[in-house]
Amino acid sequence: MRFPAGFPITLLGLAAQAPLSPTTPDPVQSVMATQRDFKFKDDSSIFSPLDLVELSRPGAGQPNDAGDLALVSVSKYSLKDKKDYKSIFIVPIESAVQPLEVPLASGGEAFWLDNRTVGHAVDEGEGKDKVKALYARSFQFETDSAIALSVPDTPKLVGKFPTSTAGNFRLSAEAGVLVFADYVHADGDLTKAKENDEAWENRGDSAFVYDETFERHWDTWVGPKRSSLFSVPLARSTDGTWTLGSKFTNLLKDTGLKCPVEPFGGTDDFDVSSTHVVFTAKDPKLPAAMHTKQDIYVVDVHGQSKPRELTSGKQGATHSPVFSKQGDKAAWTELDKDGAEADRAKIVIYDLKKDVRYTLTQHWDRSADSLAFSQDGELLYFTAGDIARIKVFVLPVPPTPAESTTDPDLPSEYRTPVALTSSGAVSGAQPLSGGRVLFTRSSLTSPNDLFVLRGLQHLDVRAPAAFSPEVQQLTRFSADALEGKSLASGEDFWFEGAEGKKVHGWLLKPPGFKEGEKKKWPVVLLIHGGPQGAWEDQWSTRWNPNIFANQGYFTIAINPTGSTSFGQELTDAITKDWGGKPFVDLRKGWDYILENYPEIDPERAVAAGASYGGYAINWIQGHPEFGFGFKALVCHDGVFSAAYNGYSTDELFFFNHEWGGLPWEPEVKATIAKFDPMNYVANWSTPQLVIHGSKDYRLPETDGIGAFHALQERNVPSRLVIFPDENHWVLNHRNSLKWNYEVFRWFDKFVGSDN
Ligand SMILES: *[C@@H]1O[C@H](CO)[C@@H](O)[C@H](O)[C@H]1NC(C)=O
Ligand SMILES: *[C@@H]1O[C@H](CO)[C@@H](O)[C@H](O)[C@H]1NC(C)=O
C-alpha cells in the first residue's frame, strides 16, 4: 500500500498524475467526501429490501405416492432474531384443510417415505462426530375429522449415515433402498470417509495441489473428495417401523464418474425405478473445465452391475434424467454440441426394453427443462422457458421407432408441445393419478406457491385448443406478508432491435405512478447476466425488479440479443458479439421507453447489472457515444478484462464458446480486443459502484478491483463493496440487505428526489 492508513485516498490528488478531462468530475465530490445517511423508502405499501429479506422462501412441492398430500420446505429469516427459521408444510391437495406447518429446529432435508410418513435427515453431533441422522415423522390426515391434519408421534430414529454430508435422497420403495449423494475419497468407501478426512486434515500443511482443472469451481477449491451416488437398504416392517441398513454401496465405484454434477447438481441429476438408477455425469475421459459433455447411465439399484451408457456418445450436455413409473423408459434433455451450455436442450427418450433411443423435440425452438412421465407412461410433462415465462408443456410419448434416431418421422401431435400454463415461472411439474399435475410457480409479484392442474384425462393432444385446464392454487405462503404492498405485475413491451428483430422487455411502474402526470420519475435499466438468461415473470430474492420499482424507480428490464426463451437464434446471436447487438437492442428499447413514457426524467437515469450485466455496465462506461446519459452505474461481479477471463474463470468452456476459440488464437484475440471493457477505460466518467464477492471463482474479484482502480485513477466517483464470504451471488440475508442498501444509496446520491 502506497498511502498511510486512514489517509483519504480520494483526496490524494491523482490529478497530479492523470490530467483531468472535461468529463472527469471534481474529486472533492467523491463519495468519501459526501457520505451521508440513506434510508430505504419503507412505508406500509412499499415492498422494501427489509420485506424481501424476511419473506418466506418456499421450495418446490413434492407429492406423496397417493397424490393427496404435498410436502414443501420453507425457510423464513428474522432480522430481529438474526435467524433463518426452517419448516416443512404438509399441503392437502384434494381438500380445503389448511396446510400444516412443522417447524424443523435444526433444519435438514425432508422427503416422503410413504403416503403418511416424511423422512427427515438432520445433522447430529458436533465437530468430528457430526453425522446425518434420518427420522420418520408420521402424519394423520382425515378429511372428515376435526383433527384433519396432525402429527401424532414424536419423530422416530430410522438410522444414521456415516457422514454429515449425505443428501439428495430418492427412495425406491419397491427395491427397499434409499439412493442418495455424498462425497468420498479415492477409495470410494463411504464408511471410511471420516477417517480419510482426518488424515487429510492432519497432512501437515495446508496446500492444495493440482495436475488438472478444475482446481476450483464456483465457490470451492477442489479437495480430495468426489461426489458419488450410494444406495442403502431402507425398509418398513409390518408394524410400520422404518429401518436404515448399514451397508452403503457406492454405485459409481471405480468408474471415474461423479454425480451429482457440481456445482448445481442435486436430485435432478438422477432418478430411481424399482430396479435401477438413471443418472447424468460428465464424460470422465474429458478435462472437466474445457468440456460440457455429460453422458447418461443406468446402474442396478443395488450396485450389482457396472453403469451402462444410454447416450450416443456424440452429444453435449445432458440433464434431468427420469424413469417412467413402469421403469421401461428413461428420458432426459440433451444438447447437441460439447462445449456449449446454452444450446437448445432437446428431449431424448430411451426405450429400455427395445434398446432404442430417439429425440422427441428435434424441431421445437425452445429448450426443455425438467421432465416427468405421466403415471401411465403415455405423456411426458416438462417445463420450458417461453417468452419470458416458464410454462408446463405436455407431449404424448410416441411409439418407439424401429431403430435409434435423432429425427424420427413423427405425426404432428408428437411434435408440438401443448402449453398447460401461461403465466409465471414453474419450477417442476409432478404428475399425479387421475389426470392431475402438481406444480410450483412464482411470478414477479409472488414467491413460490403450489398449484394443481386437473382434468388432463380430457386433453386431446390433436385438438389442444378445445381443452382448458382447471388450475387450483393450493397455498398462499406470502399472501399475508404481501397484503397491501404495491407490487407491479410487469408489463411486456416489444420493439424493433438489432437487425430488425423483435425484442422484448418488461417495465414496472413505481407505486403512485400516474399516466400523464407532471411529476417526473427516475428510471433504472436492469441488465441480466448469462448472457444466456432472461428477465422472466419470476420471483427473485437477489435481483428483484419490484424492489427497484418500490424504491421509486421506473424499472426497465430488457431481454436483448443473447436472451433465452425467445428462440435459439436470438440466444446464439450474442456469440462473438458481446459488445455489439445487445447494445443496439438496449439502446433501441431505451428510446422506445423514453418516447412512450414522458413521465420519466431522462436526466435521472441509472443502470445496474451483474455478471454479463456487469460486463454491460463496464461496456457502457467506455462508450459514451451510446448516449444513455446514465448518472450512476452499479456493476456487480462483472467482467472488467475479458482477455484475462479467458484464463481466470473456472469454466473455460464458457469463454471458449462465447469468444469463438482459445484465448490466444489471433481471431479470438481480435474479437476480445474489440469488445473488452478494459480497452475503453480512457472514456470512463460515470459514477460507479462496484460490488464483488471474494468467493466468486466464475469472475474472480480482481475484475471488480480492476474496475474500481480504473475509476479511482480517473477520479470518477466510485465505491467498492467486497463481500469476502459471497460467491457469484449474494446469498446471506444480511449481506443481501447491505447489497440493496449500497445500491439504492448510490443511486439516491446521484438521482434521488432530494438532489
Ligand atoms: C399410497 O397410496 C396409494 C393410493 O392409495 C397406494 O396405491 C399405495 O400403495 C400407497 N403407498 C404406500 C407405500 O403405502
Ligand atoms: C471513446 O469513445 C469514443 C466515442 O465517444 C469512441 O469512438 C472511442 O473508441 C472510445 N475510445 C476509447 C479509447 O475508449
From TrEMBL:
It comes from the Eukaryota. InterPro entries: 6-blade_b-propeller_TolB-like, AB_hydrolase_fold, Peptidase_S9_cat. GO terms for molecular function: serine-type endopeptidase activity. Residues 539-752 form the Peptidase S9 prolyl oligopeptidase catalytic domain. Gene3D superfamilies: alpha/beta hydrolase, TolB, C-terminal domain. Belongs to the peptidase S9C family. This is Dipeptidyl-peptidase V.
